[in-house]
Design goal:
Blueprint lengths: L2 E8 L2 E8 L4 H8 L18 E4 L2 E4 L12 E3 L12 H8 L9 H14 L5 H7 L11 H16 L1
Parallel strand pairs: 1-5
Antiparallel strand pairs: 1-2, 3-4, 3-5
Helix pairs in contact: 2-5
Length: about 160
């Protein structure tokens, strides 16, 4: 198998790596770059656990080939906090107990960030619609939606 040299930006930092033609962006992030916050839930784009922001667009990294990231910008869960300071979404997930086992949490946080980047004042319906591609077996979703709405309100005040 031929390896491809790819260069892209991850969470603001330039990176270069080699990947196989059929390797997904999820595999490149986890195995090639050691960024294990992005999770594989289903491998078919149905659960959202592998959500990342690729050039400003929310995508399931299990459905994107690693070579497609060449020259692009990728944002993962590892890039949300600034040092020891959690992103408002991360803090609100903790305050609202919007997580349990944690497998889906990075995907929900990245998806919620993508929403708030586009729409800083979403309605509850818009939050539910935007997060519909992310599945959770533990929380029942209400706490997640409340956390996103609370974070949005805090971010608007800041």
């Amino acid at each position: 198998m031929a390896k491809h040299h790819i260069a892209f930006t991850v969470n603001g930092d330039p990176v270069e790596t080699l990947c196989e033609t059929e390797e997904t962006l999820l595999d490149v992030l986890r195995n090639g770059l050691g960024l294990t916050g992005t999770k594989e839930g289903c491998g078919t784009g149905d659960c959202g656990a592998c959500s990342v922001i690729l050039d400003g667009r929310l995508v399931c990294s299990c459905l994107v080939l690693g070579v497609e990231a060449n020259g692009k910008s990728v944002e993962t869960i590892e890039g949300m906090a600034r040092g020891d300071e959690l992103h408002p979404l991360q803090r609100k997930f903790l305050e609202h107990a919007a997580l349990q086992c944690g497998i889906c949490t990075p995907g929900f946080l990245v998806a919620a960030k993508a929403l708030l980047d586009r729409n800083p004042n979403p309605t509850e319906t818009e939050v539910r619609y935007w997060l519909a591609g992310n599945l959770c077996r533990c929380t029942g979703y209400d706490k997640i939606v409340r956390a996103v709405l609370d974070a949005a309100a805090e971010m608007r005040r800041a």
